[in-house]
Amino acid sequence: MAVDDFKDQWVETGEGLTVCVVAPSPALLAGVHSLLSKIESVEAIYDLSSLDEIDPYLANTDILILAADFGTNLELGEVLELSPGMGVLILGGDEFELNRMLAADSDHAWGILPLEATQEQIEAAIQAIAAGLSVGPPSLLNLPLVDSEVGMDLQIIDPLTDREMEVLQLLAQGLANKQIAVKLSISEHTVKFHVSSIYTKLGASNRTEAVRMGVRRGLILL
Questions:
Q1: Residue 7 domain flag
Q2: Is the separation of the CB atoms in 111 and 129 below 8 Å?
Q3: Is the dihedral of CA 44, 58, 147, 92 positive or negative?
Q4: How far is it, in rounded angstroms, from Cα 143 to Cα 40?
Q5: Which residues constitute the domain of residue 8?
Q6: What's the total number of domains in the chain?
Q7: What's the confidence (pLDDT) of residue 191?
């Protein structure tokens, strides 16, 4: 889901979150720390200059925040293996392989935001990740994935458009075509066109399959 879509759906996490920030420069680390200190749901912040320093903090970390050039994807993969329940938020991550790795990871809620993300966006992402959701731009959420349970390639040959993502989300909510048309202020004919396109792109033959495939790919907020 897009992080801006979560701003009006924030959840109470029940207790303060412990966040570990990894950033390569003191200035960037201080800036991220200052921003996080203003977020009410964040109770404790650990500041690290590299992933090499994280071992003593892993057991207590709810969300790991990685800013800019934090290290290698291999290092991150090793850290994630040691802490399967931890959420991950990347600030400034734009490497395809990193994005693909996170999008294919079913053990961790994750988010990717630009380094210039606002406090409100970062807070929304943290709330979403704490709720077990993943947030990011549609281009990332449409990354090719593999269903590990059946070894099935879940690649979307032609990525869903922003409008198709909206329609798919409303399909998942059980709305009929006429209701979707009213919700999005478009014609019912246009809705049918988008639904047909979604079926084609997801390889689905009906609404149930489209929603199921959308959930597998992380395209749908439940």
A1: yes
A2: yes
A3: positive
A4: 33
A5: 3-137
A6: 2
A7: 92
Of the two residues 86 and 136, the one the predictor is more confident about is 86
d(CA 132, CA 130): 5
Alpha carbons 160 and 168: distance in angstroms, whole number: 9
Backbone torsions φ then ψ of 150, nearest 5 degrees: -120, 5
Whole-number pLDDT of residue 153: 43
| Same domain (yes/no): 172, 66 | no
Lookup result for tokens 């003593």:
56
Q: Is residue 144 part of a domain?
A: no
**What's 198's DSSP letter?**
H
Nearest residue to 201 via CA among 190, 179, 217, 187 = 217
Calculate what percentage of the chain has a pLDDT beyond 70: 72
* Domain assignment present for 10: yes
Tokens of 5: 């879509």
Predicted pLDDT at 12: 41
Would you say 167 and 191 are in contact if contact means Cβ atoms under 8 Å apart? yes
Region class of 163: left (phi > 0), else alpha (psi between -120 and 50), else beta: alpha
Q: Are 91 and 117 in contact (CB under 8 A)?
A: yes
The two tokens of residue 187 are 């014609």
- Which pLDDT belongs to residue 215? 72
